[in-house]
Amino acid sequence: MKIPDPHIIVIFGASGDLTKRKLIPAIHQLYINHLLPDKFAIIGTSRTPLTDEEFRKRMIEFLPPEGESNAKFLENIFYQTIDYELQDDYSKLGKRLESLKESLNIPANYLFYLSTPPNLYDVIPEKLALAGLNTQSDGFRRLIIEKPFGTNLKSAKLLNISLLKNYEENQIFRIDHYLGKETVQNLMVTRFANGIFEPVWNRNFIERVEITSAESLGVEGRGGYYDHSGAMRDMVQNHLLQMVGMVAMEPPVVIEADAIRHEVMKVFQSLRPIKPEEIQQHVIRGQYTASTIKGEAVAGYREESGVDPGSHTETYVAMKFFIDNWRWAGVPFFIRTGKKLPTRVTEIVIEFKPTPHHLFDQTGNDQSKPNQLIIRIQPDEGILLKFNTKEPGAGFKVNQVNMDFHYSSLTDIQLPAAYERLILDALHGDATLFSRGDNVEAAWNFIQPILNAWENDPSIPIYGYPAGTWGPLESDDLIEGTMTWRYPCKNLSDDGLYCEL
Ligand code: BG6
């Protein structure tokens, strides 16, 4: 495995939740897996005044308990207080980088991680540039930017313009942590390293594609942020559309950042815009209401702290759309995501067309169902193929059975966390698993008319759904005929309406 060059990572927003829960543990894991160079440093920065020692103490509780390597790892961590608006503080940061570089004998390779509120995503890079910290004459200078990348099409465009004033596209790493998930990357391998799938991966054989990203948690103390965002901005514009891109793209010429992102871009450009008059019918929004789960009273969204008691923010979205290109013409894509659903699960269902003739109907008990290939992103990561077999015994009774692969069966392999992979890739300068500026804008372009309609047309309903259920019943009407969504459970091969809550 290639080891990145010695470097310094600067985390902006280091007193926040993401740093403690995801970033430091991910960098630590890279460290204990020997994927970091001998020489590296991390500088945490935020408004909170802290010493290096105090910051280290705060981080230690998020490392594995009594890990032998913890003390050694923490020696590489430093802290610098910053007022994000004050240019002077960026010069001070520059000096700190300079002195660490000298004392630790690290070249001037800097990765700036923006884990701050999004209103600082243009301020910090601009001020870093004014302090001369964007030029790559003596080492790399890279920016990782957390989501949300803009709050609408206009702000995403403005943010891109502002960043590209001082940085090249290849210095900018826009995070979509779903792309860092092992199973999302495996989608490419499943499609392009197997001879059996790609020939049938098109409108001639596929009836529909379904993507579900369900969460059992609610807004968990993030009501203030979430109430201005909603499921469409929080999950659909980024994570769900990126998965659509991976499922629907053409084979890239090579496995390289631009080749892949180019193919994803073509998918986004082919998304058929949903017309204003179709929105109510093709896009269902919902909000969870109070209910009782396992005998316990659960608050509704409007009762959550930080949420407007009259809020119209959606905690659930289900939608149907088409990709107007040669491969996918006429194949409906159904996607849905929501909070406070019965279980946490993300999966992609490829449903194949039924057989042209129902041969076993003659017996009056043909139970054959369409074949489905289910790609499980999380949890119980794996792949499941549903197909029909004959029930042993007299006659021809048809039953659907499962053929399944679970990542957990690869016992000696531990799936790396998304942030580990993404930070390592950014250190290598590999942007394959990051969103390109034009991709992000294209994704916004698709959903912006829906957001506009929701904002401007009060007649479009927002349906309530009791916390702990699968969302508004109206989302079932998106799927015509007798077919329904798959109702997945925590375990890949189980399904049905009544799985664990
Ligand atoms: C984040 C959203 O991007 O993704 C959260 O802001 C959501 O609201 C989370 O809970 C889901 O990520 P994961 O990896 O737990 O599926």
Report on this model:
- By secondary structure, this protein is of the alpha/beta class.
- The protein contains 13 helices and 17 strands.
- The longest helix has 20 residues.
- The protein is globular.
- The site of 6-O-phosphono-beta-D-glucopyranose (BG6) has 4 residues, from loops.
- The site of 6-O-phosphono-beta-D-glucopyranose has 4 residues, from loops.
The gist of it:
This protein has 501 residues and is α/β, with parallel strands linked by helices. It has helices at residues 17-32, 52-60, 70-74, 87-104, 123-130, 153-166, 182-192, 223-226, 230-248, 257-270, 279-282, 418-428, 437-456; strands spanning 7-12, 40-46, 77-81, 110-114, 141-145, 172-174, 206-214, 283-289, 291-293, 296-298, 316-322, 332-338, 345-352, 372-378, 382-390, 398-406, 463-466.
